[in-house]
UniProtKB/TrEMBL annotation:
UniProt cross-references to Pfam families, sorted A to Z: Ald_Xan_dh_C, MoCoBD_1, MoCoBD_2
Span of domain Aldehyde oxidase/xanthine dehydrogenase a/b hammerhead: 40-145
InterPro entries tied to this protein: Ald_Oxase/Xan_DH_a/b, Ald_Oxase/Xan_DH_a/b_sf, Ald_Oxase/xanthine_DH-like, AldOxase/xan_DH_MoCoBD1, AldOxase/xan_DH_MoCoBD2, AldOxase/xan_DH_Mopterin-bd_sf
Protein name: Molybdopterin cofactor-binding domain-containing protein
Region (Disordered): 150-171
Length: 734
């Protein structure tokens, strides 16, 4: 039986529904239900689907940065063994949209705007034939008449205010800097980053009449369907995307990428399925990057160590016309006090691949710099850096006056200090030596905005007393299968073995998608609401109030009545409903963010300047913990990326022709096992009624937001060298 749509909005929800349930699965560190499939190679990733008659496409990338394609030698390519088609269509040069708009800006068919932009797709019977022909494909170019610079700091670069954010201005920062008893005015650089998801971008496209089915690797299916439809000029209801397993995204799969459109176009032209898998190098060169940043931070404190002024200004970059601008100052808006303030982002228009959302856009690089600057201020004042942070937590958001929904920052700093052994830290650098290594400790706050987006999920309590959760929500390695199942299991009183979760198919109700740490709380809230509707119906059948209903281990009871198996209560009928949520008043009425603290101990080699992270502790408060294992994994992964951001990761572009030099994992250095010490993750329990009816906030990106700052601060504490250019490679330290 279909129940009415359970539609509610995100008003402050004090009912604390999940804590009143009895099953006891919510929050538990349960394994992912799909984990065994993944580690045994049985989970089917995008490129692995076996589809009859499928042929292979390989993208050809521009080998100039800016200009026009004047000719493509199709005939020579088509004369080669097995080659079926050479496709060159403006739709496939469309940039990854980064969640900015489902409609693509009009693009000149043959215009090249960055080195590595796709210019053609070669399709052949086998992958090897396609790759050979792609390498051999002759493309002629004419150079651009008015090229834009490759370098964001070039003297002739055009700098613009982004359309996506406005400056925050309050009081008189310059005056506050003059009045300050202690101040810092520093400039930091952070390099570009690659998402470097484990699974390269891949799509298999097949047409059935005028309908398109894509097996691919995407983060936001409902949105991606619209993008694809827009690119191909077809109706969104003719597009279906299937993506049950996604091998990481980190923002790079928020928007559709070039291989998807290319595969769809080729499949339409050839009348057969086409698979396009990007190589690792193509992913690096073509998909998108995190912008490099130059950040000026001004901190003005009074004699008591309280901020009276705060400035955070950043220069980021993107292609001309792109809307996205790394929101560097996002957390600076609400984290610390200082009513005299100026927070501002500007964009340099340059020729490098599209800059977009890479894990924790804004905070990832903004926090690492703000927290390093705070360390500099603590040293000037001569107080403990933890104390400085605690002294500067405002009662309401400076300038805006918005109250905080909940904030576990003080607890995270205090509990982390205890667990980490912060009291052993020396106030001055160069005090601790272990053989040839200087040893030091650093701390940083973590903060990441909390967001909710519209989401739907369908839940069916089946006549046999098991449940099915269905939504197009993706699981990009984050734990969606586990969490959504746990919410349903808790609400319906079912052990996890009796809850099935079906995800990653755009034919299912539209979930939030995976992005911005909003997937679990948004889609999870939709699951919660659907289950509440089912509970109401069960209560009605049993003749009790919904609040009296107790569901546990597949039975229903109320008052003194003996528990009855659900299948008896249901009397052969399924109960189905779709839950729906969208952000309501609380989204704007409260400053919502997840918080935490990072502690790092590093060794700096006294002769080579090499930095090794020796241990790290992270403490995080993000509302209710939905699954302590998957949440911990997110935090841990974020901290590992923090190590990369601090010490190794850096996109390097050739200053002569704009090409990305280190376009693979051999040259773009992400931390490997030997770089990652034991990392301790402590999760704080919290409830946040304004954030979601689950009383949970986002955690996916929190673990990276400030982590690199703690490491940089530890490096200074170890050896007394303050490096203001990330990553902290040994050449900058020695
Ligand atoms: Mo995230 S960078 O919004 O996938």
């Amino acid at each position: 039986m279909h129940l009415p749509l359970s539609e509610m909005y995100n008003e402050p929800d004090d009912r604390n529904v999940l804590d009143r349930m009895r099953q006891g699965v919510i929050g538990q560190p349960l394994d992912r239900p799909e984990g065994a499939l993944k580690v045994s190679g049985q989970a089917t990733y995008a490129a692995e689907w076996r589809i009859d008659g499928c042929v292979e496409g390989v993208l050809v990338l521009a080998e100039i940065a800016q200009g026009q394609v004047t000719a493509i030698d199709r005939d020579a390519a088509l004369a080669r063994d097995g080659v079926l088609a050479v496709i060159a269509d403006p739709a496939m040069t469309r940039r990854s949209a980064q969640g900015m708009a489902a409609k693509a800006p009009q693009q000149d068919a043959a215009k090249v705007e960055y080195f590595g932009q796709p210019v053609a797709l070669v399709v052949a019977r086998t992958f090897e034939q396609a790759r050979d022909a792609a390498v051999a494909l002759r493309v002629d170019y004419a150079d651009a008449a008015e090229p834009v610079p490759f370098d964001p700091h070039a003297p002739d670069v055009k700098v613009e205010a982004p359309s996506s954010s406005k400056p925050v201005e309050g009081g008189d920062l310059d005056q506050a800097m003059r009045d300050a008893a202690f101040s810092v005015d520093v400039e930091y650089d952070t390099p570009g980053h690659a998402s470097a998801a484990m699974e390269p971008h891949a799509t298999i496209a097949q047409w059935q009449g005028d309908s398109l089915i894509l097996h691919g690797s995407y983060q936001m299916l409902a949105y991606n369907v619209k993008e694809i439809a827009d690119c191909l000029g077809i109706s969104p209801d003719k597009v279906r995307i299937i993506a049950p397993y996604v091998g990481g995204g980190f923002g790079s799969k928020l928007g559709i990428t070039h291989e998807a459109v290319a595969a769809a176009l080729a499949a339409r032209e050839l009348g057969r399925p086409v698979r396009v898998v990007m190589s690792r190098q193509q992913v690096f060169q073509t998909v998108m990057r995190r912008s490099e940043t130059r950040q000026r931070v001004r901190l003005a404190a009074d004699a008591g160590g309280r901020l009276i002024g705060l400035g955070h200004e950043a220069l980021v970059s993107n292609l001309p016309g792109e809307k996205f601008a790394e929101p560097v100052t996002q957390a600076t808006e609400f984290l610390y006090g200082g009513e005299n303030r100026l927070l501002k982002v500007e964009v340099a228009r340059i020729s490098r691949l599209t800059a977009g959302s890479v894990r924790a856009p804004g905070e990832a690089v903004g926090m690492q710099v703000l927290e390093a600057a705070m360390d500099e201020l603590a040293e000037k004042i001569g107080i403990d850096p933890i104390e400085l942070r605690k002294r500067n937590l405002p009662a309401t958001v400076p300038v805006q006056g918005t109250p905080y929904s909940s904030r576990m920052l003080t607890q995270a700093l205090e509990q982390g200090a205890q667990a980490f052994g912060w009291s052993a830290r020396q106030d001055r650098p160069c005090q601790t030596r272990d053989g040839d290594w200087w040893v030091g400790m650093g701390v940083a706050s973590a903060a990441r905005v909390n967001m909710m987006v519209p989401a739907q999920a369908r839940v069916t309590l089946r006549a046999d007393g098991s449940a099915l959760v269905e939504t197009d929500q993706t699981d990009i390695g984050t734990g969606s299968y586990a969490i959504l199942g746990q919410i349903a299991g808790e609400m319906l009183g079912l052990p996890m073995a009796r809850v099935d979760v079906k995800l990653g198919d755009s034919a299912l109700p539209p979930g939030a998608g995976s992005g911005g740490s909003f997937g679990a709380i948004s889609t999870g809230s939709a699951v919660l609401y659907a289950c509440e509707e089912i509970r109401k119906r069960l209560a009605k059948i049993l003749g009790c109030a919904a609040e009296e209903l107790v569901l546990k281990d597949g039975t229903a009871s109320h008052g003194d009545a003996a528990p009855r198996p659900l299948r008896d209560v249901l009397g052969g009928e399924d109960l189905t409903t779709t839950g729906k949520i969208k952000p309501g008043k609380t989204a704007k009425a409260f400053s919502q963010a997840s918080y935490g603290a990072f502690f790092a101990e590093v060794g700096v080699h006294a002769f080579t300047g090499e930095v090794r992270v020796r241990r790290m502790t992270g403490v995080f408060g993000f509302g209710r913990v939905l699954n302590a294992k998957t949440a911990r994994s997110q935090c841990l992964g974020g901290m590992v990326w923090g190590i990369g951001s601090a010490l190794t990761e850096e996109l390097a572009f050739d200053t002569r022709d704009g090409h990305l030099v280190n376009h693979d994992l051999a040259e773009y250095h992400v931390p490997v096992h030997a770089d990652v010490p034991a990392i301790e993750v402590i999760l704080l329990e919290e409830r946040d009624a304004a954030a979601s009816p689950l009383q949970a906030k986002g955690v996916g990106e929190l673990g990276i937001c400030g982590a690199a700052g703690a490491i940089a601060n530890a490096v200074y504490n170890a050896c007394g060298v303050r490096v203001r250019s990330f990553p902290l490679t040994l050449d900058k330290i020695v």
